[in-house]
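Handout, section B. The chain below has 376 residues.
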Amino acid sequence: MENPSRLLRLDETLLDLPGLNVPMTSDLAGEQIGGWRQYTHSATTSAWLAQHFYLHWKYSADRRFLEARAYPYLRDAAVFIEAVTALKRTGGFRSLPLSASPEINDNTPGAWFDSITNFDLALIRWLLAASAELAGELKQPADAGRWRKVLSEMPEFEYGEDGRLLVAKNYPLPASHRHFSHLMAIHPLGLIDWSGGEPARRTIRASLAELRAKGSDWWCGYSFSWLGNLAARARDAAAAEKALEIFSTAFTLRNSFHCNGDQSGKGYSKFTYRPFTLEGNFAAASGVQEMLLQSHTGSSKSSRRPGWLEGRVLHLAPRPGRLSDFGRAPRWRRDPVGGCLGKGRNAAPGLPVQWQAAFDPHVAGAAPDSRERPVA
């Protein structure tokens, strides 16, 4: 965002609140351009955008970016969240005056929730934790403590009896729906992760089971892309591959453009129209990468299909600031990622010389040809 000072003034003028939040629909100058108000006026838009700043720092290890761009954006977004959640509800927990979960109940009054949704809560909890982390990295203990305190005053997520994530308190996913916004805590935010043990795995399994039970009648192409990412995080390679295959064969035109509706005639969705939305393509590419290599927990995992017996991956970037190639030249044989230790020159000062790639191989095999090097 090239003009955050204008947006800071916007929050102070329109909302009488300090900090930074941006309209969910805006032009290149950051001006509001309208749309469904539950989402265009979301209190957590900047929290979601903040993840891009955070991830750029995590992957690039560019300390100047951290100091000048990443932490200032997260800090200002956290200031707004601290102010807008000042209302405390039952139990003394912070909340929002109104909350939503895109695009549950579309553009109707029922799209507003008087209790905080898991969508908004996930973004808020992620932002505060990430802001504390970056403040700590920059040796700003007062800021780090401030964001940890606000985080401690936020409620926990709302779950169903089987452990699945609800949309909001006492409000399960009502039917097949194109958006999985209530599952943001699983992906892309990673607050509930397979590495968290059985409680987290129970929630992930139950949440994905609910999506399957509700069916894909009212999904769009990007829903299948999103499912591919979710299934990869759940270590369900078969489900991830199937979702991405349906996306690419039923919802992608010959020119590679993603269209929202099912073009295959196979009944994957009752939407059959052809609006082009680019995020479906990006999400599908992300899903493939999530299957090949995940490093969001600090160690690396693969959700590759056991049937993928040959291939080669070049220039895939795990955290922090490194590029990874794996597979036997010219391609992998049997198992491309069978537990390896990558060594290389640092991408930025202060990073460890060694980076441990503790992969979970799906197929036993010989050691791979694996190399890592700094991001150019």
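Note. The longest strand covers residues 322-326. Compare this with the example in section A.
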